[in-house]
Amino acid sequence: MIEVKALASSSKGNCYHITDGKTPLLLEAGIKFKEIQRKLDFQTSKIKACLITHEHKDHCAGVPDMLKNGKNCYMSKGTAEAIGIEGHRVKTINAKESFTVGTWTILPFEVEHDVAEPLGFLLANEDGDKLLFATDTYYIRYKFKGLTHILCECNYSLDILNKNIADGRIPKMMKKRLLRSHFSLKNVKEFLEANDLQKVREIWLLHLSDNNSDERRFKDEIQALTGKPVYVP
Known about the structure:
The protein has helices spanning 33-39, 57-60, 63-68, 77-83, 158-166, 173-179, 185-194, 215-226; strands at 3-10, 13-19, 25-27, 49-51, 72-76, 90-93, 99-101, 104-110, 119-125, 130-134, 149-153, 202-206, 230-231. With 233 residues, it is α/β, with parallel strands linked by helices. It has one domain (3-231): Ribonuclease Z/Hydroxyacylglutathione hydrolase-like (Metallo-beta-lactamase, Chain A), CATH 3.60.15.10. The protein is globular and about 50 Å long. The model has no long low-confidence stretch (mean pLDDT 96). Keywords: Hydrolase.
């Protein structure tokens, strides 16, 4: 049984603790390690590794301290170079080449973001559970079978973004970047409709924009679409 705990989920920092009861992992380290320790009541000694999607600070700010504290951090070569880190605990990985950490088999896959070499992750455990983790991507090119847990970005809705631009609250130039770098509510819906959700037990909507989202609406619309429990940390 997979348990998910969101430690941070916004442009100020992203970090998620997952465990199947045997191998605890962190997805992202976008907050300081001290903050991670505090949020986990200093129960961090059993964390086996951290998976990093890309080099933006809100996803990797805590990586140097993670390494100092003996935690292996997995990321693409492009991400490691962009962060400027190296060492035996920096584990570089490639898209479509699976690897194992404890009881997890992890398959990285390409996502669409304006950075060096971003990745998403499909994690499968020995109990047959499958967790999809995808953030900071405007599109997911793949379909996945047998998912039980979905953690994906749902950053903005175009109608809210357009209204904010019309009202002068958001610079117009931001729109072009958002459309090509972050997951909209519409694209999340299309992704979910394209995948078999029969085994899905829960959906987590991550990394909502402070200005261009509506937590209640996003949760209600995804619940209505999928019939699944939806969490918005």
